[in-house]
């Protein structure tokens, strides 16, 4: 330590004190920053929990209303009442929740490319594969790329390890830059399609709005009473080579206000004369909706959260079979 009795060492003592003060200031500033960060994180966590609780409540309300909608007319579901896609705003303490209900079956069910009752017995369903290929072509994807993508999807889900022509199993995925294996099980979320061989980023971006992953292997249950004209590719894919997207759009635009009363009446339309749908395809067209999608966007205290749920309304009461969360746009 410098000797205070020597004038030439008084400056060194002052410098030492200043250095200690500077170090203490840095330590204090760091501690305060961490306390502030921890406070913000705690506040954000609380806001997110609160937003999720409001979203869950909004989904529960939507589920009950869907049950009422189905019970009101079990024979058919139409656009009456303006329920499809209409935003319903619900004030909540400190913010707002907005719910939207969609027809969760008017999409291509990715799991329909296989058939089977258990994960160990999933077999390729050719008609499902051809419908996915037809949808891609209707959306402007090259026919050869569409064929490869459809084959890759079927191999990704089916139980066996034998690739079909143009498809891919473990041997192909093992050679990727980051090796992985084929799932060989049903898809849980449509985003899994990105992992399938033959699905490029461009193809995924094109097809994403048109696909879903229903928890069944049934062919896509298209409700002809709720399918919108802008969703015409989903109907055109049922009759590839027989019905164009433009013809399908015109057909949907001419639908009666109260929908069709029977599928027999629908297939007997003059505009469908001469078409020969397979029995499976004819039965694929529905008058009711079994699955509904519910999106609830919540804004609370500057925090945004979106909850997306799939509601199974095939039996009463309707049930939430899947939900996911994400940040608001």
UniProtKB/TrEMBL annotation:
Output a single Gene Ontology CC term carried by this record. plasma membrane
Task: Kindly state a single biological-process term from the GO annotations of this entry.
Answer: protein secretion
Looking up InterPro entries in the UniProt record yields: GspK, GspK_central_sf, Pilin-like, T2SSK_SAM-like_1st, T2SSK_SAM-like_2nd
Q: Start and end of every T2SS protein K second SAM-like domain? A: 222-279
UniProt-annotated location(s): Cell inner membrane
Q: Where is the T2SS protein K first SAM-like domain?
A: 106-215
* Keyword annotations from UniProtKB, A to Z: Cell inner membrane, Cell membrane, Membrane, Protein transport, Transmembrane, Transmembrane helix, Transport
Identify its protein family.
Answer: Belongs to the GSP K family.
- Please report the name of this protein according to its UniProt entry: Type II secretion system protein K
Q: Which organism is it from?
A: Sphingobium indicum BiD32
